[in-house]
Every structure is written in C-alpha cells, then in structure tokens.
What does this fold into?
Amino acid sequence: SSPCLQKQRLSERHVARSSPKEPRKYASLEDARRRLQDVPRPGLFSSFLNFVRDTSIGSKKSQPWWSPGRLMQILLRPPRWWQRPVRDEDELPQGLVADMEAKREHMKQLAGLLLLPVSSDMASLRRLVKDFPQVLDMPIGEVAVRLVILKDVLPGCDACYLIERYPRLFLQDDASTMRERVGTAASKLRSALAGARINAIIEDDPELLFFGSKLDHGLRQLADLWPTADEQCFANSEPHELACAVRALCFTK
It folds into this structure.
C-alpha cells in the first residue's frame, strides 16, 4: 500500500485508541482511570474533559449511576455524601473548648438557629467552631441576617446547611458584601446552566459562588467544550458532575 494510505491507517488506529469508550465498556473504575492516565500528552487535561463530555455531561439522555462523570468527581473532590460527620478525633484546641463551654448559651442559640441538635458536649457545633472560631463572638442576630440573605438570593437552598458546613464562606464578609457576591454568582450559574439543578450544584460546591472572575472563565470554557448542551442536557446531568466540571474549568488557561 502507498505511504499515504499507511499513514492514514496509523492515524485511524491512534484515534481508535485515544477515543473514549462507552461507559459500560469499562470493566471497572480502575480501567477508566488507566484510560485517562494513558491519554498521550500534550492535551491530557483537555482529553480528560472531552472524555467526560462525550460520555456524561451534555448527553440528551438521563445518566445512569455508573456515569463516568463520577470519575471526575472522585478525582477532583469527594461528593457531599462522602463527607464524614464530626467524630471524637476532630478535637478542638483546648482554648476553643473552654470558650464554647463559657458561651454555652450562645452555642445553644446558634444550634437552634441552624436547626442542629443540642447535646451536652455540643458535638454538632465542633466543626463549625473549628472552621470559623470567630462565630463564638458573632452576635446571633448577624448569623440570622446571613440566613435571611441566603434564603432570599438562593431560594430553595438549605441555608442552614451552607452556614453550618461552610461558615467561613458565608460569615466572614459583612452581610452586604456576602449578598452581592453570592447573588451575582448564583445569577451567572442560572444563566449559563439553564435547566440544571442549580440549588443542588451550589449545595454540592458553594465555593463556586466565591470564585469571582474565575467563575466567568469556567462557565465560558464549559460553553466552548459543550456547545451543543441545552436545557435538557443540563437537566439530565448530575449536579455534582456539573459542579466538578465548572470547578475544574475555572482553573484552566
């Protein structure tokens, strides 16, 4: 055969090796992981995103539980249901323990506001205090204002969960700044991902609301990678997969 024909056949074999397979053709998660690791450089990350695009996000059909988009989720960050509860080993510095004990009434009010169970050791508040010790000196009224703001700009989201699990994000800025940042980012997500379950995306990865200009970049990259995705595609995509995709794209060049 001619050199041109041989070159064409080699190219076709290369494409066949590097093209993503249908999800059900992978024997296991490790098989899919090896496939991603074997993608030739350069363009490893781009090929990875194309793999997820072609086999999960952007599909016209509802995705099954074994969608390979889970791989992106696993590699980038654990889903909400993997986040373990506070355990005994999550010990607070003795100074914070003493402060919580000294402000027990304040802690009880905070737990009641966030709909958390109140126990003698205030275990439900340990993680919150560990992540954001300033809450010990924060008036309950200010926390309540943040709850009202979140319920206003993120209707349908679990505002208590967001503050309890991510206190630094939602409590460290003054109320007006937080409202502006969260409201603006949420509007961008709703516009760019029309049809998606935006509340679930935000609850899965609320840090997206605080990425600023990086969020704009990530959403533009998503539109470029999945130009055919419409409202039905986003509606059929799993929220945590979309959240992971946007997060990853926010930090691409």
Q: What stands out?
A: DSSP finds 15 helices and no strands in the chain.
